[in-house]
Amino acid sequence: MIRSIFLTGVMVLGLVQNSNAQSKSNNNDVWFHYAGKNMLSKKLSLTLEGSVRFANGLKEKQQWFVRPSVDYHFAKSLVMSVGYTYYDTYVYGEIPMNKITIPEHHVWWQTTFVHNKKELKFTHRLRDENRFVGIATQNNQGKLEISNYEYRNRLRYMFLLNHPLLKKDEKTKVFAVLGDEVFVNIGVKEAKTVIQQNRIIGGFGYNFDAHHQIQLNYIHQNIWNLKNTIQENNPTIRISYITNFDWFEEKLN
Fold first, then answer.
1. Pairing mode, if any, of strands 212-224 and 230-246?
2. Would you say residue 10 has pLDDT above 80?
3. Of 236, 196, 238, 203, which is closest to residue 92 (Cα–Cα)?
4. Least C-beta-crowded within 10 Å: which of 9, 34, 42, 222?
5. Which residues neighbour 145 within 8 Å (Cβ) at sequence distance 6 or greater?
6. Beta bridge partners of 154
7. CB atoms near residue 79 (< 10 Å)
8. C-alpha span between 196 and 188 (Å, rounded)
9. For residue 93, what is the DSSP state?
């Protein structure tokens, strides 16, 4: 019930933001993505995530990030993580949001909750990001450079459905994914928008074995800049390689 009210409110706010946006741009993006979980004990794991992103096919660099985290598994269905992310976002598209490459440092925590209903797997992820965003100003020569970092808080909620399509020996080989992730500005005084970004997600995955997986997802990404003068509408293909290793069990064996 709470999730339904939250998502309905987000949709309404999104429509308001869309009507206020002055300039719109469309970029056909391709993202290459990796995520690897490494269990160190029954409760503790290290995760490393990274992505290289391109705009308009592979013609323009859009963004890259690296995201390590430490995860504590309270139960199989409940995990809490603390992590750090470094971003570089480039100048891209016909109506770029940035005038120079913008670096960001994030310190964040998140909670992931997973539950099942028959063959459907539901994933809820709530992440609180403390963002330190590079601010570009002109130097003495009139050139733009990053002069300082501005703190901005952002809340992200992701909801995913996972359904098996093909099984072998009672183990899922091919599955379908459907979901949404919304990014909300929290307490950012300069922000003229509540929603900073939204992603509708759908695609398929294949499990090679218990440790290796690939996914091919279509993501419809909408981004609003801080002043709500630009809205990006980006059809995106994301190719993901995902690993999951249990070093603790292997060490015991």
1. antiparallel
2. no
3. 236
4. 42
5. 100, 136, 137, 138, 139
6. 129, 185
7. 20
8. 11
9. S
